[in-house]
Amino acid sequence: MERLSIDTIIAKILAEETFHAVSEEYSLTLKIDEYVPYLCGAVHDGHQFRKELWDNCLHSEYDRWYEEDPETKNMVNSHPIVISGLDSRFEYDLNRDPDNAVFDTAWGKQLWKRPLPDFEKTKSLQKHTNFYKVVHALISKLEKRFGICIVYDIHSYNWQRWDREVPTWNLGTSNIDNERFGESVESWRQMLESIKLPNDIKQTAKINDTFQGNGYFLKYITNNFENTLVLATEIAKVYCDEYKQIIYPEVVASVEQQLKILIPKHAEEFYRKFKA
């Protein structure tokens, strides 16, 4: 993996080069092993938190981990194109628009002891801007090359905070063209429901049950590219103990191994159906 500037990463995309890169400021990773009409994103995988923010932050390291999406990059890292965030959403949230990406409060609790200085916000928001510059270049390239593109937008959620039964997988579709892409959404839901997990973990997959797909990553791509479908795909955190901060690697590995088969299968089905 190379450490590259945002401009160099974009130049490599425009030239259709294959590469593995971390951005110069260590805010994102992008790997492109091959140009294919689909990509995987893990925007909330990051856990880094700038040291100069530590003393001013009221949330603990565990509080931050609890609201992040650990292991989501590992679940899709075998695919040809993967983009992920490295920083915690508590510094800036890639799945929120720039005006709301730097929190004052987070999940009902004040985040900072003292209001965050403007120069700290600017530093964080520049990394948010850089991420979307890369996303824009990448989707532009894939749409130009293939005419159609699909994005698997991978997240996780804390299922134990709900006071009702919730699905293992949730697809958020309220901001996509369901008339055009509805069959592909249902096909993806069925594939997710077919996954078998260890430790007798129950497998269900529903649409708009816990989340509706209101994230900025999905909205940005959907609003800027008419031939790209973003599937906001949330797995309940059955792959860890939410309260003890323990990851179950056998569950993560099982998800990764099955998505390794199912994502290319679904992407190929989508491409055949919608290519020009």
Distinctive features:
276 residues, alpha/beta, 9-stranded mixed beta sheet, 8 helices, 38% helix, N-FG_amidohydro, N-formylglutamate amidohydrolase
How much of the sequence lies in strands comes to 15-25%
Say how many strands there are: 13
Compute the CA-based radius of gyration: 18 Å
Superfamily (CATH H level) name: Zn-dependent exopeptidases
Q: Write out the strand line-up for the largest beta sheet, numbering strands in chain order.
A: 1-2-3-5-4-8-11-9-10
Largest sheet: 9 strands, mixed
CATH topology: Aminopeptidase
Q: Quickly count the helices.
A: 8
How far apart lie the N and C ends? Answer: 34 Å
How do the helices and strands follow one another from N- to C-terminus? Answer: EHEEEHHHEEEHEEHEHEEEH
Structural class: alpha/beta
* Domain unit count: 1
The first-level CATH class name: Alpha Beta
- Give unreliable regions as ranges: none
Coarse morphology: globular
Mean pLDDT comes to 97
CATH architecture: 3-Layer(aba) Sandwich
Helix content: 25-40%
Pfam family, one: FGase
Protein name: N-formylglutamate amidohydrolase
